[in-house]
Design goal:
With 440 residues, the chain is of the alpha+beta class. The protein is built from 21 helices and 13 strands. Helix 8 runs parallel beside helix 10, helix 14 runs antiparallel to helix 15 and helix 19 packs across helix 20.
Length: 440
């Protein structure tokens, strides 16, 4: 046997070194014994781990039990996995205390588990990374710390699709607690980030794929936590570029970048060779959530024949004056799309509350229409960018502040009065009252 790192053989595994490694594993696992309150549970978890490490090709409970040297009763092992009341949160909390490195980059990703049947908790037709396509699977949201050339798992939560959470019969059959509500993957990911921070880790940055990186609410959540991030985005995302009129998609920006702007970067080794790609850096302003953007993003995930009726439901929700009814309508739409078009369903749910924020605050019609069609932040930024366009060398923060102030003063002269501005005090009070209701 050999231990390998990447593509290099670094040591030959002998019988003595294998036994030493197993002793180290045993000492490490002993640190988790307090997570299981009763002796039968500790015996069952020992046998379960033995089964994971043994030479059984199939890791079902029956196959693992059949290869154990000290099998005990099969029913005891099955009870431990399916019904025994032990708390996974305690296990993850203990695991985080054992990680010797406390500073690094947090990588968040989905992990898919292909399934054949329909009874496993959370199994659904959804994208599965292990299959490379949409298939029947379970999906977990996972977070891992990358530091000193190693990866340390820190959190792992099973994603429960809305089709499961909205079905009382299925919930009762598998024992999903009534207090557990549907959570989008990006919300689960933010909760994991907070748990990692609470455990005392210093996160120098967060990296995610486009399923998370394209979500403005997720990025805003990271910003509120004061975290830097590097995220993948979808090519259709739109940006404003300095001294370039209008907005452009990420694909258009990449296509217009000159050849000398691109660098080839190799950042690791994969199963099929070095991980290498070409990159260029562009300073751009990302567009925030808007109903027109959301409508386009959802429809892009659908075939032509499905778009008219979905578009009608979306537009009806966005024109509604009842925030609760609009939210219910969009959630029902996501449920209808879940089976055959899970990407479109995910897009509907992504930032759903953010998209309907103005509607849910109960503002006057005039103020609501004005705020729905005006983006004061982008107007201010574009005017400021225009003012400082000829500055080539910056000599410190004070110089930056002076030019920003000059840009703001010029921008103010071009602002128009918001229709319904007399209703601004209720707008200021509405978010505060909502936060108080939610206990924030």
């Amino acid at each position: 046997m050999y231990r390998t790192t990447g593509f290099r053989t670094v040591a030959r595994m002998t019988t003595d070194s294998a036994r030493a490694l197993l002793r180290r594993v045993g000492r490490y696992l002993d640190r988790f014994s307090a997570c299981f309150s009763r002796q039968p549970q500790r015996e069952a978890v020992r046998r379960y781990l033995d089964g994971l490490f043994n030479d059984s090709e199939r890791k079902s409970m029956e196959a693992m039990h059949g290869r154990l040297s000290d099998p005990g009763q099969y029913q005891a092992l099955q009870h431990f996995i399916t019904h025994s009341p032990w708390d996974a949160t305690r296990v993850w909390t203990q695991l985080r205390t054992t990680v010797p490195v406390r500073t690094g980059i947090l990588a968040i990703d989905d992990t898919g588990f292909p399934k054949q049947g329909t009874h496993s908790v959370g199994v659904h037709r959804q994208y599965c990374g292990a299959l490379g396509k949409i298939g029947n699977c379970q999906v977990a949201v996972s977070s891992a710390l990358i530091a000193d050339g190693r990866t340390w798992p820190l959190a792992w939560d099973l994603y429960l699709p809305a089709a499961w959470m909205d079905d009382p019969a299925r919930r009762a059959t598998v024992g999903i607690p009534p207090t557990l509500v549907f959570r989008e993957k990006w919300r689960m990911a933010l909760a994991q980030v907070r748990s990692v921070q609470k455990a005392g880790f210093t996160i120098t940055g967060v990296v995610v794929d486009a399923d998370y990186g394209s979500n403005a609410a997720f990025r805003a959540g990271l910003e509120r936590l004061g975290l830097a991030y590097g995220v993948a985005i979808r090519g259709g995302a739109t940006f404003a570029i300095a001294d370039v009129p209008g907005r452009q998609t990420a694909v258009a920006i990449a296509d217009s970048a000159p050849a000398e702007a691109w660098d080839t970067v190799t950042w690791g080794a994969g199963t099929h060779g070095p991980l290498t790609a070409r990159f260029c850096a562009v300073c751009a302003l990302c567009r925030r959530r808007h109903k027109a953007n959301k409508l386009r993003n959802v429809l892009d995930h659908l075939p032509e024949r499905q778009r008219p009726w979905v578009k009608a439901i979306l537009q009806r929700a966005y024109r509604s004056t009842d925030g609760a009814a609009a939210t219910r309508g969009l959630r029902d739409l996501a449920t209808r799309l879940e089976r055959d078009h899970p990407s479109a369903a995910a897009s509907v749910r992504e930032g759903l509350e953010e998209t309907l924020t103005i509607l849910s605050l109960g503002l006057s019609d005039a103020l609501r229409r004005s705020l729905s069609t005006t983006n004061a932040a982008e107007s201010l930024i574009s005017r400021t960018r225009h003012v400082k366009r000829n500055v080539k060398r910056w000599r410190g923060g004070q110089m930056v502040l002076r030019w920003v102030a000059a840009g703001v003063l010029e921008a103010v002269t071009g602002f128009r009065r918001i229709t319904g501005f007399r209703e601004m005090p209720p707008l200021i009070a509405a978010p505060r009252a909502r936060d108080q209701r939610l206990g924030r």
